Amino acid sequence: MRALCWNGVNDLRVETVNDPTIINPKDAIVRVGLTTTCGSDLHIIDGLIPSMKEGDVLGHEFMGEIVEVGREVKKVKPGDRVVVPSFIVCGSCWFCQQQLYSCCDNSHPHPELAEPILGYPTAGIYAYSHAFGGYAGSHAQYVRVPFADNDCFVVPENVSDEQALFLSDAAPTGYMGADFCNIHPGDIVAVWGCGGVGLMAQQSAYLMGAEKVIAIDRFPERLALARDKIGAIPLDYTKVDIQEALLELTGGRGPDSCIDAVGMEAKGEGLTQVYDRTKQLLHLETDVGAALRQAMMACRKGGTLSILGVYGVMDKFPLGLMMNKGLTVRTAQQHGQRYMHRLLDHVSKGELDPAFMVTHRFSLEDAPLGYDMFKHKTDGCLRAVFKP
Predict the structure, then answer these.
(1) Total structural domains within the chain
(2) What is the per-residue pLDDT for 161?
(3) One domain for residues 17 and 48
(4) What is the pLDDT of residue 317?
(5) Which keywords fit this entry according to its UniProt record (predicted)?
């Protein structure tokens, strides 16, 4: 089959690789219908995530049709149109039973690679380096889905492929970030980042009862989507002092909750940006923490900080700021299985429609071009979607 492979930093190629096969009786093989870029892919492409190997197939956000199942798969069958969360879960370990799905104890085949870095292994994730399981990704014609009964969700007829696609990762990640905020009627929520996850966090905050959602970014076309599609108040951090603007919009108190949907490659301004970027280039740290520090500073006393951006090692983390302000911090990789039925219901009822995030469509053969546009945000590219 054809697949998009990582061959080194900023070296992506579409190559012919072996078709996936059933390895475990709980597996399914899915013919990929649609698969999309994700901001966290850029950390891999830019060489910030260790333990990638030449030839690894990229992609972790996808939907498609089941073509084959193992003998122990009972809940789904060939012919089912399904969406698959990006994290792979067994469904039976203690963490899965607590719905902490991205912490699954049984889906990482090489825990010894993660334990020195994290202390404990996380769940496996498609195409996110061998430290996170080494699973082949979804930018391919076919993909093997372990634990198919837990990880394949049948898509209702009134939900389109493009709507279902983003329920794999962007929508549940954003929804989880809003859920972490424990939103009450009248709350004001500020979201850093208007990429796919940030936009979904903004829409989810409104679904959960927020009175006002504030969207922070620097790209006019993304801020326009936040305003026009979500109803958020857009703020361009290159044109206004974010701290002052948020105080003005919240009556001097600060947002009740702040969501960081940016992560380790944030763009900031001033000396801290120069410091972080220099250390990142020298591989002395992996993270630029501009968005996270700004969110921590802006959040009201006793508020909630929800961190969705992917981070590794960051200097100058203002722990004292969090402690003295009494912030509650919630963070995780996405527990997609926890929210999937709820999200499918929202989409079915017309309360959530993530399909607007598709700005560019490509064949799989043109995936390197799609990633180049996505990375550099040319032509207003929010998400590039590939159809194998």
Answers:
(1) 2
(2) 98
(3) yes
(4) 79
(5) Metal-binding, Oxidoreductase, Zinc
At 111 the pLDDT is 83
Final residue of a structural domain among 304, 331, 358: 331
- Domain of 199, in residue numbers: 173-331
Strand order of the β-sheet with 56-57 is 12-16, 2-6, 56-57
Q: Are residues 178 and 288 both part of a single domain?
A: yes
The predicted pLDDT at position 279 comes to 63
The pLDDT, as a whole number, for residue 190 is 98
Q: 122 with 271, same domain?
A: no
Rounded Cα distance between 158 and 348, Å, is 6
Q: What is the pLDDT of residue 138?
A: 98
Structure tokens at 269: 């301004």
Domain boundary among 286, 303, 331: 331
What integer pLDDT is reported at residue 273 of this predicted model? 66
Using CA of residue 84, residue 223, residue 232, residue 330, what is the dihedral sign? positive
Task: Write down the pLDDT at residue 318.
Answer: 85
Q: How far is CA 23 from the centre of its chain?
A: 27
The whole-number pLDDT of residue 268 equals 65
Tell me the CATH number at 119: 3.90.180.10
SS (H, E, C) the chain: CEEEEECCCCCEEEEECCCCCCCCCCCEEEEEEEEECCCCHHHHHCCCCCCCCCCEECCCEEEEEEEEECCCCCCCCCCCEEEECCEECCCCCHHHHCCCHHHCCCCCCCHHHHHHHHCCCCCEEECCCHHHCCECCCCECEEEECCHHHHCEECCCCCCHHHHHCCCCHHHHHHHHHHHCCCCCCCEEEEECCCHHHHHHHHHHHHCCCCEEEEEECCHHHHHHHHHHHCCEEEECCCCCHHHHHHHHCCCCCCCEEEECCCCECCCCHHHHHHHHHHHHCCCCCCECHHHHHHHHHCCCCCEEEECCCCCCCCCCCHHHHHHHCCEEEECCCCHHHHHHHHHHHHHCCCCCHHHHCCEEEEHHHHHHHHHHHHHCHHHCCCEEEEC
Instruction: List average pLDDT for each run of 10 residues in the chain, which is 388 residues long.
Output: 96 97 98 96 86 94 98 98 98 97 94 81 93 95 98 98 98 98 97 97 98 97 97 97 97 97 74 65 67 94 95 80 95 96 97 97 98 95 97
